[in-house]
Specification:
Layout: H1 2-5, E1 19-26, E2 32-40, E3 43-54, E4 60-61, H2 85-92, E5 102-107, E6 110-113, E7 123-131, E8 137-146, E9 153-159, E10 165-170
Antiparallel strand pairs: 1-2, 2-3, 3-4, 5-6, 6-7, 7-8, 8-9, 9-10
């Protein structure tokens, strides 16, 4: 299905060359749901996810519209990070806050910092691509930060090239 939809979504072969299954389950009515995330150069592209639902008879049901990015290579602003995960995290913490200690580094692109005195939970940080409003893909550090007062759960993207805050969203429902 994804290969067949490539032309409709203006995707080239490279755009579909690194897809990963992020979720796969069968609902009680027997429909199988598979969600794919688009990657480039081994890194995820934020919210570039397509879901496909397949009935037990093999019929495709209400495929989601394409959320993959077309011609990814031409939209990448910087292939390497100049800012470290620690620098990115420090840039979003309140002024004069100590940098929490690093607890885990699964690989150079996925880290976890202790909550310390700055967060209610440990702080995951990972390198991924983030699309701006113009569709340009910025290499960025994605940071999930639960406010210590419990009033906010921040999703932040810090440009790994120059430290610019690209996105700040409070995921807490009020």
């Amino acid at each position: 299905y994804l290969q067949q939809s490539a032309a409709k979504w203006a995707l080239d072969t490279e755009d579909l060359s690194d897809l990963r299954v992020t979720d796969h389950y069968r609902s009680p009515n027997g429909i199988e749901h598979i969600y794919f995330q688009q990657y480039y150069g081994g890194l995820p592209i934020y919210q570039a996810i397509v879901g496909v639902s397949i009935g037990s008879d093999g019929q495709l049901y209400s495929p989601s519209t394409g959320r993959f990015h077309a011609r990814v290579r031409s939209k990448i602003d910087a292939p390497r990070a100049r800012w470290s995960a620690s620098q990115a995290l420090a840039s979003v913490l309140p002024k004069d806050s100590p940098l929490p200690p690093l607890l885990e580094q699964r690989d150079p692109h996925r880290l976890r910092y202790a909550a310390g005195a700055v967060a209610a939970e440990d702080i995951p940080v990972r390198l991924e691509y983030f699309a701006d409003r113009d569709g340009q893909l910025h290499l960025s550090w994605a940071i999930q930060l639960a406010a210590i007062d419990g009033q906010a759960w921040w999703s932040l993207h810090v440009d790994a090239r120059d430290g610019q805050l690209l996105q700040r969203s409070n995921l807490t429902l009020s």
